[in-house]
């Protein structure tokens, strides 16, 4: 299966399977925010379009970043809470935020 990949202003989106996606921070968002110092990750459960996916405190801004899709959060990259600078990584396996089940 080919992996579908797209980006929005703040998030890259990787298709994990027909109903699941993984979201992470784009390089453009990393540049806009600067070094990330703190993140508040989503809880497992339902998210409506526009709900806060992740709250970020960085050297250039403090933002609540809205989810670009509605769905159910099924997994959260909890290592980011302990090491927020992972959000500044260019590697998707390091800077992913959450997996969502979408319709």
TrEMBL record:
UniProtKB keywords: Lipoyl
GO biological process, one term: protein lipoylation
Top-level taxon of the source organism: Bacteria
GO cellular component, one term: glycine cleavage complex
Record-given protein name: Lipoyl-binding domain-containing protein
Source organism of the structure: Agrilactobacillus composti DSM 18527 = JCM 14202
């Amino acid at each position: 299966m080919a992996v579908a990949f797209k980006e929005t202003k703040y998030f890259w989106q990787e298709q994990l399977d027909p109903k699941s996606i993984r979201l992470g921070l784009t390089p453009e968002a990393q540049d806009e925010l600067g070094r990330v110092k703190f993140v508040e990750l989503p809880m497992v459960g339902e998210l409506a379009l526009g709900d806060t996916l992740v709250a970020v405190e960085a050297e250039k801004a403090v933002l609540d970043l809205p989810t670009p899709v509605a769905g159910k959060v099924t997994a959260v990259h909890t290592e980011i809470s302990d090491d927020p600078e992972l959000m500044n990584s260019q590697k998707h396996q390091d800077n992913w935020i959450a997996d969502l089940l979408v319709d």
